[in-house]
Amino acid sequence: NVAGRKPVNDDTQFCIGSCSKMFAAAVLVSLAADKTVDLEAPIDRWLKNFATNKLADGSKVSRAPTLTELLCHRAGIYSQRDRLTKNQTRWIRDFEIPLADSVAGIAREPLSSEPGKQFAYSGAGYCVLGRVAEVAAGKSFNELLALHVTRPLRLSRTTYFPAIDEDNIAAGHKIGRAHV
Question: How many CB atoms lie within 10 A of CB 102?
Answer without folding.
Answer: 21
